[in-house]
Write a structure and sequence with these properties.
- With 252 residues, this protein is mainly α.
- Helix content is 63%, strand content 5%.
- It has 11 helices and 2 strands, in the order H-H-H-H-E-E-H-H-H-H-H-H-H.
- The chain has a two-stranded antiparallel sheet.
- A hairpin with a 2-residue loop joins strand 1 and strand 2.
- Helix 8 packs across helix 9.
- The protein is extended, with a radius of gyration of 24 Å.
- The two termini are 42 Å apart.
- The mean pLDDT is 78.
Length: 252
């Protein structure tokens, strides 16, 4: 019995050592090594923070930007992407950013973007979507890998965005806008939440053109999608450990 306890303790210590080694290597050594290599090539960026990367800073800047009133201007970049805006001003058009422990080389120079995409075929695959993001979008155009982009998906996309198909949607779109304007007549001279009105309009158009129904008929589905979208947004900047991060998402 004593030998069994010793073996179990030794096994537990080895597991803890391996886990500690993995965390230190993946979450500390590799990011700092990548940052050093990129800095030596002239690519700078905000410093990496253990586990979080730049996510805490980006989230804080988004909260600050959203809390302030916005002037009537088309210059919305500092408002919707304040962290990227700040990095471009500080480090230039090309910089190194950190999404958790994952390094991201951000390129905003249009000519360089064109050159990279032109000469690096298949080198830039779509990132693996998170658990909830996958649930929200499924195997859609934005998430499907190129090898799965077969005749079926191409046929569906070509039919949906064909000129004649889009023309057939115009009456349904006009009807949706008409419904919204009729509802607005009762609110003349009153304040209203325009964001919610246009969210309703978008949902109504999708319901009419894609499913031949109305927003009210599929209201429960749209509400569930909205809740799932909020969950994704709430967890987007949070650090995730393998298994632990997944359980955290499920429980919250």
């Amino acid at each position: 019995m004593g030998n069994l306890l010793i073996l179990f303790t030794a096994f537990l210590c080895i597991c803890l050592f391996v886990a500690l080694h993995y965390v230190l290597y993946e979450y500390l050594w590799v990011p700092h090594r990548v940052q050093f290599i990129m800095n030596s090539q002239g690519i700078r960026g905000p410093p990496y923070e253990f586990i979080h990367g730049n996510n805490k800073e980006a989230l804080q800047m988004r909260k600050e930007a959203s809390s302030k009133p916005m002037a009537l201007t088309h210059d919305i970049f500092p408002r919707v992407m304040p962290h990227d805006y700040s990095c471009i001003k500080k480090y230039g058009k090309n910089y190194l950013s950190w999404n958790g422990v994952r390094a991201q080389l951000v390129i905003t120079d249009p000519e360089l973007v064109k050159e990279v995409l032109k000469t690096s075929e298949k080198a830039f695959s779509k990132p693996k979507p998170s658990y909830f993001f996958k649930k929200l979008l499924g195997d859609s155009i934005s998430t499907i890998k190129s090898e799965k982009w077969g005749a079926r998906h191409r046929k569906l996309a070509n039919h949906a965005f064909h000129g004649e198909s889009l023309k057939n949607m115009i009456p349904a779109m006009i009807a949706s806008v008409g419904t919204m304007l009729e509802k607005w007549k009762d609110k003349e001279g009153k304040e209203m939440e325009v964001f919610q009105e246009f969210r309703f309009l978008t949902s109504e158009m999708i319901s009419r053109t894609a499913f031949g129904s109305s927003y009210l008929e599929g209201e429960k589905i749209f509400d569930m999608l909205m809740k799932l979208t909020l969950i994704i947004g709430r967890n987007f900047y949070k650090a995730k450990f393998p298994i632990i991060g997944y359980l955290h998402l499920i429980l919250h």
